[in-house]
Amino acid sequence: MKTIRLTTSQALVRHLAALRIELADGSLVPYCGGVFSIFGHGNVAGLGEALWASRAHISTYRAHNEQAMAHAAIAYSKAQFRQRIMAVTSSIGPGATNLVTAAALAHVNRLPVLLLPGDSFNSRAPDPVLQQLEDFSQGDLSVNDAFRPVTRYFDRITAPHQILSALPRAIQVMTDPAQCGPVCLSLPQDVQTFAFDCPLSFMEPEVLRIRRPVPDTGELARAVALLRASRHPVIVAGGGVLYSLAWDALRNFAQAYGVPVVESQAGKSSLPWDHPLNLGAVGVTGSPAANEIAAHADLVLAVGTRLQDFTTGSHSLFARARILSLNVQAFDAGKQHGTPLVADARTGLEQLHGALHGWAADAAWTARAQTLALAWVERVTTLTTPPTNVPTPQLPYDAEVIGAVRDSAPAPLSSPEHDVVVCAAGTLPAELHKLWRAGKPGNYHMEYGFSCMGYEIAGGLGVKMARPEQEVIVMVGDGSYMMMNSEIATSVMLGKKLIIVVLDNRGYGCIQRLQLATGSPHFNNMLDNCVPEGGASSTIDFAMHARSMGAGAEHVANIAELKAAMVRARAATTTQVLVIDTTHTRTTDDGGWWWEVAIPEVSDRPEVNAAFARYTEAKKNQTL
Prior knowledge:
single chain, Rossmann fold
């Protein structure tokens, strides 16, 4: 066996640089799109040296915040439909723990990312070192053990040769469609620098290919029987449709059998927004068309969805229906007492399609769905077009901002075809789920598994790195902007242009509405309500702040000015930040569904007691 003398870090980086994956079209591309890194004493001498030595074969990107760079890496993978990844390395201590939130986000969303945090000395010779955690009862514990519950695979590399098995295992997890998620290789700083005789074959890994599990024969037969017995079926398209590249199979199945389609947050863009059978968003943030069909369906074919509470209306929306879950992960396929069909989404849909000759949904059901879908398309145009005859000027709300962004795309570009919108938290996910028009798979990028405030701008950077040819538009509230905005500077530094639209409602408007709806008074949410005696009102100039990081930025006064600013932003070559004042008191009333938020059983406030009575009544529609 031929070997070469390498450090642990050098072997790791060379293996990553050599990895190739075969895409659906047969082309081979690098599996790892690069490494985000913030160096410190726990990784600069080991991984830092290795990354410099391999800089011609794998790119290293310097970020400004560890959590943010991990968000960018995760968004990159999501935008690539999980076909490719990025790696992330940090120093020990706070640099490592800053990655934990991002790891949890990736875990919840079933998205791959390779985390390479530095760790304390394996030798323990200089213990305790700067930033090292000392546990009084467990001598081998470090802060990196916090990654164990929020990653799919965790390993601490305590000797160089262990990388030969640990790294391929990590790659295996990330490329497994059922197990896919974040992995962590914890790298003690001394072990990073240790040398060993590395087999040359480790630098020549086999080409990666994503497997497509086929259905079990018995499960497929049961699924076909359920569909044949159904007259009023509906398909819930989840993120698995996109990750398995199953949008054509979904469209062909729906058209062949007249089955309407509704979309979860993760599954939105599975069908073009104007497809006659696409009723749009479903669930708590759903359209009236989608929720009416879902509520009256006799069978729900849930394709690639985790069936989280926003999709199911906290288990109250599909009360009349049997659940048939086509999912590559058996854990998800068995939810809500559903009938499982464990398989790749594309393969499963194709095999179902081939076995249902002669069957179709009830013609009146299909026609009703198409009528509702068309009416909702027209209603969205109305909702996203601000009225022109309002006697007293009022602050715009999110829907009108969405319309202005959409309508700013110049000919011949079509906004639904070209733009990718990125968002994660606050009121915007509800409005965008209902109102954004996505014409191509992946043009709607919502992180709504963890709904992590601060994901938006960093996520937009990752999307732009994955899809440089498209306009990436980040829509973000002032609260999320304040939580994490440093990657504006990174986008400028890397030459990755974003358009960031900041909707400033001066606080956590979404949560204040929830606060009032649950019977509590205004408290600790809107900035003006949070000024103590001796304090001062918040007067943040977001445009000035963005300009200080190198972006072009302007504050617009109204929707007309926003449209004009969007045209200028599209023509620019560097990141642009547009700020507009909005109201938090108006939202789109159309659609929606009950969402379980626990209410105190006893309270001195009559409003809370009334909210608890409504809550108790609503729970009667919940299935367990």
